[in-house]
Amino acid sequence: MADAKYDVLGIGNAIFDVLVQTDEGFLGRHGMTKGGMALIDEARATAIYADMGPATEMSGGSAANTIVGIANLGARAAYVGKVRDDQIGRLYTHDIRAAGVAFETPAAAGGPATGCSYILVTPDGERTMNTYLGAAQDLTASDIDSAQIAAASVIYLEGYLWDPKSAKEAFVKAATIAHGAGRQVALTLSDSFCVDRYRDEFLDLMRKGTVDLVFANEAELHSLYQTSDFDTALKQLQSDTKLGVVTRSEKGCVVASKDGAVAVPAFPIQKLVDTTGAGDLFAAGFLFGLVRNAGHENAGRLGALAAAEVIQHIGARPQVSLKELAQQNGLPV
Amino acid sequence: MADAKYDVLGIGNAIFDVLVQTDEGFLGRHGMTKGGMALIDEARATAIYADMGPATEMSGGSAANTIVGIANLGARAAYVGKVRDDQIGRLYTHDIRAAGVAFETPAAAGGPATGCSYILVTPDGERTMNTYLGAAQDLTASDIDSAQIAAASVIYLEGYLWDPKSAKEAFVKAATIAHGAGRQVALTLSDSFCVDRYRDEFLDLMRKGTVDLVFANEAELHSLYQTSDFDTALKQLQSDTKLGVVTRSEKGCVVASKDGAVAVPAFPIQKLVDTTGAGDLFAAGFLFGLVRNAGHENAGRLGALAAAEVIQHIGARPQVSLKELAQQNGLPV
């Protein structure tokens, strides 16, 4: 197995975030399910945006947020995702490259605009996402560069990739190349409604060993196994995948393998502002710990630390050096 | 004099802000003057942006920030400024309208892109702005709607309007219409380097009575009168304009008329994060107090309160209801 050029390479829907703090009433008025990610078409995007207050914009996308967090912690990271060659696509490309991430996926020269998510943050800090996939729909297997995939120790894929028409082919192609090169493949289940849409396919990926490591939050885990009992679901996860990491908000996380499960507490915060990116940044810290061979418990602590930083401000990208933050907290970086 | 439809109408350069927290070294490397606003061309914008870290974007523009603050406080506000009909122009238009501001200036169908300011925020909270005017250069006298101008109690103009080629004609046209309708005209001097460029013209506007009320910070006041002595400069300001308001950062402000000067303290803050928009939001609070006939001292307090809110987070637009904040602090709204 050749030395890896990248520690982690992520593949996901490249999405620009349009964030606004709003009241609960907005969600009800627009028939939104609080805390979820709903796919919307251009007409609904226009209607929602027209009713939203003044917004703040920044680059997002689940796997992209994770990859930016990994680079911010000091590892070598790459990203594959599709934007258009429009103004927002150029902002997106700048931000991810400026974070130190290799990003070479060609921007679409035609077709829909760069994807946007209209994110409503309620006073309790919960975020409700409405995503117009836009150019992210045009990610195909041809965007997967075999040499680049084979050069990453871990590839990280988001369940959201099951939504665009042809991205799942890109997903499976990348996983196959990675395993051929002796690399590891990680998957996040992304969202409980996403799990509802693709439950059987996700279970199939896990049981066939297409993915080695699965990230899920409690809602996603319960949706995957259609049970409300955590322990039952966790046991099934342990039998279905080599390594499962379940995040439980303020209750911390559980890292589960066939050898057993270890619980890691959440990192204390001063004030919850916006949960956008919490799971993404948890995955960043965990994967960073994994590629640094820090052990599951330290990997969980790094995940908890990165998640704690991102939920204390608006937006899903870190606003400080996570590397320095980890050092200040005595965690290995 | 007809009843006013708007309390305040602002005219300015419509600029989208691209903000990044950076170290002092960045400013030195790019030859930037800390705390100032430098005009840049597209080539320099590209070079600066390429070297900047991951950014956060939101709508800005000095007078626009002020007008949004006034609407946020609960007054009727309108804005005149030029964007292009591009993606960023649409974000800009959404944000100002979503803030409750009437904004009807037609977007340019051709020519340069919507203007952007690349804003570097150093660890001390100071902001250094690099502005590519873009479509803001195409604001002309034909964008001034006489009926709309005449329908505003106060029109508020930014000194930055002297930079684009033809905006000063729009400025003078608007001031003339306003005075013809018995309205008041306010001007902010914008930036000490801007004052350096247009000192004689600004003094002329004041001495000929084209403007009735002038906002300046200490650096702008000293630049205007080319003196380092505050009291000397203040006396000259009192003789040159009906009402002068000088902001002095943590020392508060001085409201000076021919009848005398009153000092108002700054509003206490917990942590200075980003000074972007401090002067703009001070002007918002002050003008709001003025149109509500709250008296100079209360107007100064409202200005101090609005400025204190905006410097405690990234970006130049308020993140809370200033109206509620003022009520909580016993100020008239």
Biggest interface and residues each: A-B, 26 and 26 residues
- Please give the CATH class of chain A: Alpha Beta
Query: Which whole number gives the mean pLDDT of chain A?
Result: 97
The largest sheet of chain A is: 9 strands, mixed
Q: Provide the domain count of chain A.
A: 1
What percentage of residues of chain A falls in helices of 4 or more residues?
25-40%
* Number of E-type strands of chain A: 14
* Beta-strand percentage range of chain A: 15-25%
How many helical elements of chain A?
12
Distance linking N and C termini of chain A: 24 Å
Order of helices and strands of chain A: EEHEHEHEHEEEHEHEHEHHEEEHHH
Structural class of chain A: alpha/beta
The assigned CATH architecture of chain A is: 3-Layer(aba) Sandwich
Largest sheet strand order of chain A: 6-5-1-9-10-11-12-13-14
CATH fold naming of chain A: UDP-N-acetylmuramoyl-L-alanine:D-glutamate ligase
Shape of chain A: globular
Instruction: Say what oligomer this is.
Output: homodimer
The whole-angstrom Rg of chain A is 18 Å
**Could you name the CATH homologous superfamily of chain A?**
Ribokinase
Low-confidence stretches of chain A: none
Short descriptors:
homodimer, 333 residues, alpha/beta, UDP-N-acetylmuramoyl-L-alanine:D-glutamate ligase, nine-stranded mixed beta sheet, five-stranded mixed beta sheet, globular
Walk me through the structure:
The structure is a homodimer of 333-residue chains. Chain A has one domain (6-14, 61-112, 135-328): Ribokinase (UDP-N-acetylmuramoyl-L-alanine:D-glutamate ligase, 3-Layer(aba) Sandwich), CATH 3.40.1190. In chain A, helix 10 (278-291) packs antiparallel against helix 11 (296-310). Helix content of chain A is 39%, strand content 21%. In chain A, the strands form two sheets. Chain A has a nine-stranded mixed sheet, with helices on both faces. Chain A has helices at 24-29, 42-51, 62-73, 87-98, 146-150, 167-180, 192-207, 218-225, 230-240, 278-291, 296-310, 322-328, and strands at 6-11, 15-21, 37-39, 56-59, 77-80, 102-103, 115-121, 127-132, 152-158, 184-188, 213-217, 243-247, 253-257, 260-264. With 333 residues, chain A is α/β, with parallel strands linked by helices. In chain A, strand 13 and strand 14 form a beta hairpin. The first copy, chain A, is built from twelve helices and 14 strands. The relative contact order of chain A is 0.15. The model of chain A has no long low-confidence stretch (mean pLDDT 97).
